[in-house]
Structures are given as C-alpha cells and as structure tokens.
UniProtKB/TrEMBL annotation:
InterPro entries: DHquinase_II, DHquinase_II_CS, DHquinase_II_sf. This is 3-dehydroquinate dehydratase. Pathway: Metabolic intermediate biosynthesis; chorismate biosynthesis; chorismate from D-erythrose 4-phosphate and phosphoenolpyruvate: step 3/7. The gene is aroQ. It comes from Azospirillum ramasamyi. The record marks 21 as: Transition state stabilizer. Its EC number is 4.2.1.10. Keywords: Amino-acid biosynthesis, Aromatic amino acid biosynthesis, Lyase. Belongs to the type-II 3-dehydroquinase family.
Length: 149
C-alpha cells in the first residue's frame, strides 16, 4: 500500500526525555530515534510525517487546529495530557481528521489515574504497550484508514 498523505505525529509532555525518563517503562530509544523510525516507515507507506513534541498544552492544541487544513490524519501521544485535557479532546473533534492514540506503555497496567483517556472516545483507534513499535503500528493503521476512505 502506498498512498500520498500527510500525517501529524504529536508528542506531549516529557516525551522529549525518552531514553532518560524511566527507561524500565519507556525504553532506551530517544525521541530523535523514534522520529527517524517513523519517517522510515512513513516513506514505505507513501506518507509524509510532521513529527512534533511540546510540553505545552496550548501549543499542542494550536498544532491540531492547524492540521485540520494541512494534514490527512493525526497520531498523538499526549503523555499526561491524555488523562486531563478536554482542550486537546475538543481540538481533535474540531479537526475532523482520523486520529490514532498511541502510548509506549500499557496505560491500563499502570497507576489508576492513567487508565482514563480523554482522547480515546474521539480517536479512530488506540495502540498501547508496544513501546516504540506502537508508533509504526499507528502509521500502518492511519494509512489503512485514509486509504479506505
């Protein structure tokens, strides 16, 4: 499958610290390594990836709003904002784009506060617990969604 589509890959707070932050949970891969892997997989699928990270909720919201007219889909790991941000949820709804929620760890095997997601109810799907490979699965999934629409 090779399609021509642009995907926004968003990473929320503390994901800039991958490789340093709790490697027993998140692994040793850095965000730069993850971005390179995403670009490689996107090239195989015929996708263009705009890979971004911010520790600021408002910046994530602004990027999602911008994607509404510039992208064909969104992959998002909102980090801790997953469990708290109605603003991110609302912006994803407003985007009217297919959304795949991704998490490196299995959020349901972690602290109870991490079990609730404001993103899942508005996402096309959710991938968690597969480490960095989850992002590649998310690219496959969003390519499939875009290709069938």
């Amino acid at each position: 499958m090779a399609i021509d589509a642009s995907i926004l890959v968003l990473n929320g707070p503390n994901l800039n610290m991958l490789g340093v932050r709790e490697p027993q949970i998140y692994g040793s891969m850095t965000l730069d390594d993850l971005e390179a892997a995403c670009h490689e997989r996107a090239d195989q699928l015929g996708l263009t990836v705009d890979f971004r990270q911010s520790n600021h909720e408002g910046e994530l919201v602004s990027w999602i709003q911008q994607a509404r007219t510039e992208c064909d889909g969104i992959i998002i790991n909102a980090g801790a904002y997953t469990h708290t941000s109605v603003a991110i949820m609302d912006s994803l709804i407003l985007s009217e784009l297919p959304v795949i929620e991704v998490h490196l760890s299995n959020i349901f095997k972690r602290e109870p506060v991490r079990h609730h997601s404001y993103i899942s109810p508005v996402a096309s799907g959710m991938i968690c617990g597969f480490g960095p490979h989850g992002y590649l699965l998310a690219l496959d999934a969003i390519a499939n969604i875009i290709d069938r629409d």
